[in-house]
Amino acid sequence: MATTIATYTTADLLLDWDRTRPRSLQTAFGMSELGDCRRRAGYRLAGTAATNTGGSLQAVMGTAIHEAAAAVLKDQQAAGVIPADDLIEHEVSFAGILGHLDRYETATASLVDIKTTSDRWLRKLKVQGPPTSHLWQTHGYGAALIAQGRTVKRIVIDYLARDTGEQWRWTGRFDPQHVRDALEWVTEVRATPLDELPRDHQPDSAWCEHCPFRDLCWEGAVTDRDPRSVLFVEDPDAASWATKLEDARARKKAAETDEKEAKGALDAIRPNTAGAELVAIPGFDKVLKYTVSFPERIDTAQVRKDYAAAGRPVPTKKPLKGEVKLELVDAGDEVFVPGGEG
Ligand code: SF4
Q1: pLDDT at position 333
Q2: CATH number for the domain harbouring residue 111
């Protein structure tokens, strides 16, 4: 059947393009997977065939941005603006792990990596710095270059928010400890049987949604139940799961109380009554950012009154799936015992 714009959309076109890119076709464990999900790394290291090859439009946008940056740099290099011994989109390998670095500038011994992200994630990065996986990936490239006889002094990560166009640059000195930590992590993953490797992301996260092993990873879950029910299938100790739930809720409650107390105490030194202000505190390695805003919220009580006055029901939406609430209550008489009689 001939493809038409009705059956083959722009998204289909872009995803098809992305599936043919060398990075998408790479099946071996790569540096971009260092420090991320241990189970995914395990599948890669075991040479497991991917079960999900759909890709994502976010990844396509990231790939296109990398290609555009590389094309400009290559043009500049051809024109002599960038030295011939600088590296652009260069494949490297270290300890048998393959990677593709974005740029290496010989004159400053700097390795530059481009990362596309969302504005929400960028705000988190600005506060917390790059995650371990990004540090290990870039240091892996650095280690590969050092093994080739080059000098690497500086790691630069340019984060670009796809939705706002904002750029944030992180710069750090090359730290060999990151390389040692990354290799230790790989050794541990290799030494652990595949089905004992932890699933480091939740099935409804963007990581799992676009993971090439998603179906394989969560298969075995109870039919029509949460994908995480596979964890129970693998370890059917209901009392231990219930204890874990009870502990988690207690910790969450304690953390919420601590957070409220600390936030309230630090309100003593807030300098602003509107807008944003940064406050440095001696002896603490981060700064406090106070933002005071006056967001407008829907007055639901008034909305209900208005609809009632108009004699109309407030519009509501029913979820497609039932929402499950799980409480821990004192045992009574009529209790369902899984696997029990009656
Ligand atoms: S589906 Fe999620 S938890 Fe499973 S291997 Fe992939 S990223 Fe890890």
Answers
A1: 62
A2: 3.90.320
